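Quick question about two entries, pasted in order.
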Amino acid sequence: MMIKLLAIGKTDSTHLQELISEYEQRLKHYIKFELDIIPDIKNVKNLSEVQQKEKEGEAILKRLQPTDVLVLLDEHGKQHTSIEFSNYLQKKMNAGIKRMVIVIGGPYGFSEEIYQKAQGKLSLSKMTFSHQMVRLFIVEQIYRAFTILKNEPYHHQ
């Protein structure tokens, strides 16, 4: 299985980008992983929230393949412990999924079309985090999940 993380907008913080890159490199020992950044939508001041979500949705759809399993990071998604998340990924791999695409949406969430196409929603917390921080958290949790699956000492009970 390959995991693709899609995110709207670039990371402004070089410190965060360095940490994200570190976990991306670590992940390569376990799985094919790709971080794909969708450029910020231009002229958002002239767009309503719905229009902005629709434009972001169009950009997301352009990056999907017909066989992709689409999972949204969403505040109303299912929350997992790290061990539960590792089991979730293992089940996806056992199901023979070729590519799972995890999407971090824009500031207003996702368009209806994206919600309809999604096969799952995950939540990292009930708290609100910046979209830039979420990138680091999800990449680290994917890495942690694979160390759990391999019984490596990164994760402690």
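Here is the second entry:
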Amino acid sequence: MAEAQKPDLGPDPSLLILDDDESFLRRLAKAMEKRGFAVDIAGSVADGKARVTTNPPAYAVIDLRLEDGNGLDVVEQLREARPDARIVVLTGYGAIATAVAAVKAGATDYLSKPADAGDVTNALLAMTEDMPPPPENPMSADRVRWEHIQRVYELCDRNVSETARRLNMHRRTLQRILAKRSPR
């Protein structure tokens, strides 16, 4: 029964998943194997570049921010090695600027974490002219707001006063938001 649900991956089902979050990497790899992909995993930019050089995959899921650099370097190298590759960039810091940079570097699509295997598969297999279907359970507006505040906070080196100034909000209001857990 699970065989009928496998998508048509074409003659080359090779998939590189590059992420430094070990548990996420393993879960996604297992889920993508069940969908028929021939999965290869990497945990660093250096490892990803080496795998692209030796055997460029037909599909790739690449995390944007890794401990040893930027995943866009691997996207560019893969695009040069294999122009027909379908590449999805994943990141925990969803922002329009990074999405534009990912597409300019050669990514086919861009997804914010947490993305499940269904979202990733849809993005990898969507035709270029078609928009992929919307996610089954997108982030709530409260979660998107919280993610944006966290991103600006990190970019300001965790300086509350500077973050509040850039977000045009009162410092105490920001402190209350930062003290709370992330919304679902």
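Reply: The two ends are 33 Å apart (CA to CA). The longest helix spans residues 141-155. Hope that helps.
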